[in-house]
Each structure stands twice: as C-alpha cells, then as structure tokens.
Write a structure and sequence with these properties.
Layout: E1 4-7, H1 8-25, E2 29-33, E3 36-41
Parallel strand pairs: 1-2
Antiparallel strand pairs: 2-3
Length: about 80
Amino acid sequence: MADARVPASVFKARCLALFDEVATTHRPLLVTKHGQPVARVIPIETAAVAVGSVTLLSDDEGDYFSTAEAWRGDS
C-alpha cells in the first residue's frame, strides 16, 4: 500500500491535523515538494514507547555510558 501524499504547502498549513490523522489511521504520510518526496511522517508504535524502566545498581561511581574511547570533537 502506497503512503498518502501531501504537498509541503498543505503539510505546513495542516500539520497538526495531519499528525492526528497519522496517529489515528496508523498510515504513513509522504510529504512532497514539487512532486518529489522530501519527508515521511510515520506513526509511532505505542507498545514500544516507554514500556519499562531501567535501574542501574552498582557500588562504584563509574561512568556507565562511557565507551572508554578518547573523543576528539574536531575529527
């Protein structure tokens, strides 16, 4: 099934209503500019969002999210 298409100008004018439509119908929306696809709005799978939580238990004060790799911001 092909995604519904909407020109960017219509998307700009009706974006909140179109978000609601995607959420309700669970069908993606393809946004086009001059007939060419530029973006896709897809529904979020609600079952996968915030299903649980994680608690880190440890006696040390380590950096749990470190890769232990040196990082250079200019590369």
